[in-house]
Amino acid sequence: MNVLHSTSHSRHVLKLISLFRSSPKFRHLKRNVTSSIENSGGNVFSNSTASISIKAARDGVDTAVVEDEGPKLRKFLVFEGHRAPFGATVRDGGVNFAIFSANAVSATLCLISLSDLHENIVTELIFLDPLTNKTGDVWHVHLKGDFKDMLYGFKFDGSFSPEEGHYYDPSQIVLDPYAKAVISKEDFGVLGPDDNCWPQMACMIPTSDDKFDWEGDSVLKYPQRDLIIYEMHVRGFTQHESSRAEFPGTYLGVVEKLDHLKELGINCIELMPCHEFNELEYYSYNSVLGDYKVNFWGYSTVNYFSPMTRYSSAGTRNCGRDAINEFKLLVREAHKRGIEVLMDVVFNHTAEGNEKGLTLSFKGVDNSVYYMLAPKGEFYNYSGCGNTFNCNHPVVRQFILDCLRYWVTEMHVDGFRFDLASIMTRSSSLWDAANVFGSPVKGDLLTTGTPLSSPPLIEMMSNDPILRHVKLIAEAWDAGGLYQVGTYPHWHIWSEWNGKYRDIVRQFIKGTDGFSGTFAECLCGSPDLYQEGGRKPWNSINFVCAHDGFTLADLVTYNEKHNLANGEDNNDGENHNNSWNCGQEGELASISVKKLRKRQMRNFFLCLMVSQGVPMIYMGDEYGHTKGGNNNTYCHDNYVTFHTQPLIRSSFESHR
């Protein structure tokens, strides 16, 4: 196994920092004319005081003139538009908007200036005519005009009948699932106006000027057998003051420390969720630590195409375009150092929750399509987080493929780790063979959520001309009890987080009797799991520790979890950790116990590195980071989860 892939690269990164320093000035324009439609209740968003007058159509074009009190006159040419591609796309001298919604009876495109977003005002409304702006189940419109500092969203009207799976509310502005950037709050962990944890969000409108210099970069395409993976959290990696990062807690902060990872021998980083999510989702006072709980890990996606803007030093500047470029910069600079970039993606559920949850995007666009529902509209909960993404529905699986292709072709990532990937093998709600395969199958008695031996989504991904050439890694279980380690549908493409390796190695090294035989199989690449299906040792991602569970230092320091800091009376987190404290519980221990702990940590590392398969190291385990025995640190944006780096030199410093 190759430890390093040396790649010659330019070290002139400092010159790029200037791209992310200056903030533009925005001028807030108050509008003083009336709107032609009434906005009722719901979101605190109100319609703009701008009026839109539509002149008689000539040559298939309407003219929407919006008058401001200020000196500038906004004018949009409104065309019928095109049904593809989905999302907002620059074409024909303007922007085309297209979105799927099969069950909505009306759709309105909402244009929102960046300044009006902060004032909860809809700047302009474009009403879509079902006769001219709809093809099949796709609503579309093409606009030409001035989109500077302009964002967008949609309003849909239709039935509000949860028992039928519909949650249409014309007062709600919802996000386009295909939006390439989502704008809301500026800073991580900071409340919105009026202490709102969920301020209105809106989508970036692309422009023809959206460019990035890749300097000839492309995916590295290392053989998987040569990988050494480092699982890391973008914010947690450099947020601690010991990192001495110029841009702590950001994509640029990671760039500053890439040379450290290369020196360790890492040639692949696996980023914990970097899709747009709301860190304030769990926001509540934690009386134990005297701070506030947040969604630190990010396993609660709001939008799958948008990078997390608050992981960017640029924040929402330039309507999120700078955040996109900063993520691209991270990927490009990692590739220059011979380091691949994998993304941890969460296509098993979203942040919208169940019937009591929020309406942010998918639920308001077409809930019965995007989520797995019971006959009376209840949400299936195979994720343990309130809802289950309806992955094998034709529309949803196409959405997932489009999203993954975007991150490979446009963002240059090298592959994906799929959280709770077993959900992607379950049958969709309203399942029938004709719905999936195009024709009925005799004796087809599959019900919603039934595990499929040949899931359409996994088959499509495995045979996709783009995706089949990147790394596809499954966390092969879910919260509904489906456990597929060794049996995940793979088409000789997929790899798996080998949870059995973790459990067996922990048991053997701590001295539990009866594990020598299975431990030997782990060293040989787990042939008991992968040989029969025709896979190779490198289809096993071997790990001892990961983000959920004990760190390596805590694995040899604590017999029991110590999760009181989570504010849940130590009831959360895994109870069966297969850990051993080496004779004394906690960090205050005798010298002999501490020596034994260090020896055990070396034993774990040695085992990981000599085992056949692909080793994965968790951030901080290389120096013995402790979380104080907390094995479920999802809610901590503090020293518990921050990587401490007293000896790590900044990559930027090496360029000075």
UniProtKB/TrEMBL annotation:
Residues 231-651 form the Glycosyl hydrolase family 13 catalytic domain. It is found in: Plastid, Chloroplast. It catalyses: Hydrolysis of (1->6)-alpha-D-glucosidic branch linkages in glycogen, amylopectin and their beta-limit dextrins. Its EC number is 3.2.1.68. This is isoamylase. InterPro entries: GH, GH13_cat_dom, GlgX_Isoamylase_N_E_set, Glyco_hydro_13_N, Ig-like_fold, Ig_E-set. It is an enzyme of class 3 (hydrolase). One of its GO terms (molecular function) is isoamylase activity. Belongs to the glycosyl hydrolase 13 family. It comes from the Eukaryota. One of its GO terms (biological process) is carbohydrate metabolic process.
